[in-house]
Amino acid sequence: VRRGRRPSFVKAAQPALARELYERFIERAKLHGVDVETGEFQAMMEVELKNDGPVTIIIDTQQVDPNL
């Protein structure tokens, strides 16, 4: 959230590899007993957002785990 710390997708996987990684992640989650529901990979989505009231988000960068 600080200047120069915004996420970038420049190094994202190519679509075929991304799909393979996505499917592998789902399989592994299921093997660990996680209930997983999926949609259509790479589908176009239309999203609507309604803000209702004030929200305060505190981000303390001093407490972030550097291994994440």
Largest sheet: none
Specify the structural class. Answer: mainly alpha
Number of helices: 1
Q: Residue ranges: pLDDT <50 for 5 or more in a row?
A: none
Measured between the Cα atoms of the first and last residue, the distance is 15 Å
Series of H and E elements: H
Please indicate the percent range of residues in DSSP E strands (runs of 2 or more).
under 5%
Indicate the overall shape. Answer: extended
Mean pLDDT: 84
Explained architecture:
The chain has 68 residues and is an all-alpha fold. The protein contains 1 helix and no strands. It has one helix spanning 15-31. The relative contact order is 0.11.
What tags apply to this protein structure?
68 residues, mainly alpha, 1 helix, 25% helix, 0% strand, extended
Short description:
The protein has 68 residues and is mainly alpha-helical.
List the helices and strands and how they pair.
Elements: H1 15-31
